[in-house]
Amino acid sequence: MTDDVRPIIFLDVDGTLLPFGGPGMLPEPRSGPPAPGTPRPELDLIDPALGPLLLGLGCDVVWATAWMGDANVVVGPRAGLPTLPVADLPGYGPPDAQGLGWKTRALVREAAGRPFVWVDDDVSDADLEWIEREHRGRSLVLRVESAVGLTAAGVGEIAAWLGGLPDATSGGTSA
Ligand SMILES: [Mg+2]
Q1: From ligand 1's centre to the CA of 63, what distance in Å?
Q2: 17 CA to middle of ligand 1, Å?
Q3: Where do the structural domains in the chain lie, given as residue ranges?
Q4: Residues lining ligand 1 (ion), CB within 5 A?
Q5: How far, in Å, is the centroid of ligand 1 from the Cα of 170?
Q6: Which of 17, 34, 73, 117 has the most other CB atoms within 10 Å of its CB?
Q7: Cα 16 to middle of ligand 1, angstroms
Q8: Could you report the per-residue pLDDT of 5-29, keeping only the tens digit for each?
Q9: Sequence-ordered list of residues with C-beta below 8 angstroms from that of 61, at least 6 positions apart, any chain
Q10: First-to-last CA distance in the chain?
Q11: pLDDT per residue over 93-132, tens digit each?
């Protein structure tokens, strides 16, 4: 698969790689990295197996998180991920007048027609409808439960979707 058609995986952190809200976990969503020196024992909840599973999908994995570049320093190593590009997102904020989340327009713009998967715990029906209408290529939005986060089964859903793309080869594992 050539670079211009290889799917992108936009990857959230809070509630996606880093679960919250479950038993013994942080009660509230986070919107980015902690202040320096703040203890974050919940970072140990990040599953180090997820990175290799995601990388094995043969996509371009891109951070789509308020952590921005800090994701590469704090989260990536715990998730088994190398340094990844970071989506160019606006500042974190509430849904706009159309009900769109703060990442939605930016991710569709960044995808620029390439197929993409967006893995996030905070995507509304308005976001889904807007993506369906405005994005020129194929897309899969995988909404995960904040208290659980992304699982191997979720990665399996992505793999199945990739395998159904028109130009997929060898089960979506081509590089
Ligand atoms: Mg999130």
Answers
A1: 11
A2: 8
A3: 9-20+44-65+80-90+104-168
A4: 12, 14-15, 121-122
A5: 31
A6: 17
A7: 6
A8: 899 999 999 999 999 876 666 665 5
A9: 8, 9, 11, 54, 55, 81, 84
A10: 6
A11: 999 999 999 999 999 999 999 999 999 999 999 999 999 9
